[in-house]
Design a protein that fits this description.
Strand content: 15-25%
Largest sheet: 6 strands, mixed
CATH topology of the largest domain: Rossmann fold
Number of helices: 30
Number of domains: 5
Structural class: alpha/beta
CATH superfamily of the largest domain: P-loop containing nucleotide triphosphate hydrolases
Distance between the termini: 126 Å
CATH architecture of the largest domain: 3-Layer(aba) Sandwich
CATH class of the largest domain: Alpha Beta
Radius of gyration: 39 Å
Helix content: 40-55%
Length: 822
């Protein structure tokens, strides 16, 4: 049965309102349809017993027309005599709510709150509450009481009142393509998803975390009209900008000055894009006239006579740039926003007759520097890495692997070809200080994605993690960077890991659409310490190991130090050998400590000697003052022969492992030592190499005893004996290198079956290996005593001998022996 009479007229009225709203409120056709349909629904439904007339919730990003639509709607609905707008950000503390509802002292008399006074005078009105989430929880509950009670204690009747609440909460969710699909299929389902997201939003009030919108109020809002607003597209922004420039031109015309725009639409489009990355209707409306006016007024100051006409035009080059940019279509503004980009305009100014012409010569897309564009004070903060792989020295294999992963992310068709899902996450793991964090940030730069960085205490905050992924979806394709996922924290007195359940939930909920991709990058020292729940298939299931810093990476740090004042005599290759095995944190300290040393000692520059000393301090501890060492001269001689014994036998028996230095300078951690180049350490050792290493360990004591007799049997060999015994045990019990015991891993049996298995034979063979190594070391000490003695004497004189000098000593003695034999 079709409506007739007054109902038909009302339908026509609403359809007229629908058409007029769509002309005025840009890019919000769906929202307008929902609002007008709601009024039709209200008009045809039976009268409500409960009040008010209607409750609307306008949801969407800021600056998209929520407030404007409410104002225009009120002007079109003639039966509503009043409109009142309350910005609830002004009422965020509990006391401020009294200004709306509580009694107030004014003109020496008590008056009702502003809202109550307005409703009493205007019972048929539209009330707009902007940013309901900003109101205090107490005010939210007071408003709930006002709008849901049939008649308030103050006698206010809201039966003919329309309440409109606005909020930006949840807007990130419904900007995604997946949500838009849901919205087209089922608006009710889409609205439900947004309200569920809003229900999880939190705020801090008086240091207490509480829901952003009181649950009871949110329930009432969800039961009424939910209106979703889109972000404004480029076409809407151009229309807004066009209107503002036409108004400016009319103003100039009233002053008797002509202002011409031959290609107004193209000009406005580029001016709009130049406001990126964050472009809003308010910004466009205010800034575009300002841009034009600024150019005109600046020129007028320099001219002796006023031009008859100001012309703003585009060059062919600028038109071509606009054409290329326009190929992105509806994604143009989101792309600028997500990538922190703007369009930089280059103008040329010249006169032709009485015309002053401003020619827009070039329009180029540019990424804004970090810290500009977006509000970095926001949490979670979206960042744009300025570090690329080219800025990171070394790590060649790791960077190659990361580039392959980026290629996969950028070419989803390759993944689809093999019928597998897009990767959702990657673990970068390795020792501290090897550049995992830098590599993760460089990965974001090379992938062309913004990222949100989460570390330390934030990793343990489930609510914050949820906000991070919500924000990341808004900027998709994007990256969530969880740095140090294996960290442990104390929560409620207990040592605990990161909230793996929440992280897994967020990762599982991510879209498979490449355009909506949120890729999770996590770093850890150890893969084993990462919660198993996170590294299951379809979660963080791509693993990249980052090894110790290689020679190229170490060289980079030294070259950075050479940019500081130095004597020009630093051998980079030599210093690079000394820093093998050091991590990035330690390498960064070298330059600073060397500089501070020069400053403290009044030196003009850094020398190689200063650098090496700072390296040794960082690696082995500071030098001990000689006055703190009892029997200094005697101890130095003992240490010199001890270390010389190690060094000479190491040179002979382990020729492939290069020695960096031999030193007897006493330090906090040792009285003397030999340092080796970590680059030369083999990953796999033969039986002979194991035995030779034990011989080298025994050589220190053997050399000391040859020189000093029983006095040479001192405590200085304790670490050597411990290490030699341990290595002999490993060779026999674990590595199957003993001839008598054979290829048996005895620890398996002693640990899992019977502790007595092989106990006696292992003990006997450990003693046999040590005895044999001791004899062999003693023989070699005797044979090479001249080299040991020469090296010890040099160490006593100068405290330190580097690898190159040791090689000269060994070669010289060998040549002398050969000449004597000849």
């Amino acid at each position: 049965m079709s409506p007739s009479g007054p109902k038909k007229n009302q339908l026509k009225q609403f359809e007229t309102i629908r058409r007029e709203l769509k002309k005025i409120v840009l890019d919000q056709d769906d929202a307008i349809d929902e609002v007008v349909d709601a009024f039709i629904h209200m008009d045809f439904r039976p009268p409500k017993e409960a009040e008010p007339k209607a409750i609307f919730t306008f949801l969407g990003p800021p600056g998209v027309g929520k407030i404007y639509l409410a104002r225009v709607l009120c002007s079109m609905l003639k039966e509503y005599k009043g409109f009142k707008h309350f910005d609830l950000e002004r009422y965020s503390d509990p006391e401020s709510g009294d200004q709306l509802l509580g009694p107030q002292m004014a003109d020496q008399e008590i008056q009702e709150g502003e809202l109550l006074r307005f409703l009493r005078v205007t019972p048929r009105a539209i009330i707009l509450f902007e940013a309901i989430e900003m109101a205090s929880s107490q005010l939210q509950m007071a408003l709930l009481d006002l709008i849901t009670k049939e008649e308030s204690e103050n006698g206010i009747n809201c039966r003919e009142v329309i309440f409109i609440f606005t909020s930006t909460l949840g807007s990130a969710l419904y900007q995604g393509k997946e949500f838009q699909t849901t919205f087209r299929q089922s608006k009710a389902r889409a609205q439900g998803l947004v309200m569920d997201a809003i229900a999880k939003e939190k705020k801090v009030s008086d240091e207490i975390i509480q829901p952003a919108i009181a649950p009871k109020l949110l329930t009432i809002l969800a039961q009424n009209y939910i209106i979703l607003f889109n972000r404004l597209g480029i076409n809407a922004m151009v229309r807004i900008g066009t209107d503002s420039l036409l108004q400016l031109a009319e103003h100039f015309r009233d002053k008797g000055i002509a202002l011409d725009f031959p290609d107004l639409k193209g000009l406005v489009a580029l001016l709009v894009l130049s406001q990126g990355p964050t472009i809003s209707a308010k910004k466009v409306k205010r800034k575009l006239p300002d841009e034009v006016l600024f150019k005109i007024t600046r020129s007028l100051r320099q001219l002796t006579s006023s031009p008859a006409r100001f012309i703003f035009k585009l060059t062919k080059k600028a038109e071509d740039s606009l054409h290329r940019l326009s190929e992105a279509g509806d994604q143009l503004l989101p792309q600028l926003y997500k990538k922190n980009q703007t369009v930089e305009l280059t103008w040329k100014e010249y006169q032709r007759g009485r015309d002053l012409i401003f020619s827009l010569a070039r329009a180029e897309t540019r990424v804004l520097p970090r810290g500009k564009g977006l509000l970095r004070s926001e949490r979670p903060a979206v960042e744009f890495s300025e570090i690329g792989f080219a800025d990171i020295a070394g790590n060649r294999q790791t960077k190659t692997t990361l580039k392959q992963i980026i290629n996969t992310l950028k070419k989803p068709e390759l993944v689809q070809k093999f019928s597998i899902s897009m990767p959702k996450g990657m673990l970068i793991y390795g020792p501290p200080g090897v550049g995992k964090t830098l590599l993760g940030k460089a990965f974001a730069r090379e992938a062309g994605r913004p990222y949100i960085f989460v570390s330390r205490i934030d990793l343990f905050d489930s609510d914050y993690i949820r906000q991070v992924y919500l924000k990341a979806r808004e900027y998709a394709p994007s990256i969530v960077f969880l740095d140090g996922i294996d960290v442990k924290g104390v929560m409620e007195g207990m040592l605990t890991g990161v909230p793996a359940d929440q992280l897994a939930l967020e990762i599982d909920a991510l879209s498979d659409d490449p355009e909506e991709s949120v890729f999770t990058v996590v770093t850890a020292v150890s893969r084993e310490e990462v919660p198993e729940l996170l590294i299951e298939p379809e979660r963080i299931d791509t693993f990249v190991e980052t090894p110790e810093l290689d020679r190229e990476a170490r060289r980079f740090f030294i070259e950075q130090i050479l940019k500081k004042p130095n004597d020009g005599k630093i051998d980079v290759d030599k210093v690079v050998r000394y820093i093998s095995g050091m991590n990035g944190y330690e390498l960064q300290r070298i330059g600073k400590e060397a500089s501070l040393h020069a400053i403290r000692h009044g030196l003009d520059c850094i020398s190689e000697e200063i650098l090496i000393e700072q390296i040794n301090i960082i690696k082995y501890g500071s030098k001990l003052e000689k006055k703190h060492i009892r029997n200094l001269e005697e101890d130095l001689r003992l240490t010199a022969f001890h270390e010389a014994g190690h060094a000479v036998l190491s040179y002979l028996l382990l020729p492939n492992i290069k020695i960096e230095q031999v030193t007897i300078a006493p330090r906090l951690r040792t009285l003397g030592f030999i340092s080796y180049s970590f680059d030369d350490f083999p990953s796999n050792l033969s039986k002979d190499e194991m035995f030779n290493n034990i011989c080298v360990l025994m050589a220190g004591r053997m050399a000391s005893m040859k020189k000093f007799g029983a006095k040479g049997m001192d405590t200085g060999a304790s670490n050597d004996l411990e290490e030699a015994t341990h290595q002999a045990y490993l060779a026999i019990a674990n590595l199957g290198m003993d001839d008598d015991l054979g290829f048996v891993h005895t620890d398996t049996l002693t640990h899992n079956v019977n502790p007595q298995f092989f106990r006696e034979v292992v003990e006997r063979q450990v003693r046999a290996w040590i005895d044999k190594a001791t004899r062999r070391a003693g023989e070699l000490v005797e044979t090479n005593w001249q080299q040991i003695e020469t090296l010890a004497d040099i160490l006593i004189r100068q405290e330190i001998v580097d690898g190159a000098e040791l090689e000269r000593i060994m070669n010289e003695k060998r040549r002398a022996r050969n000449r004597k034999a000849g």
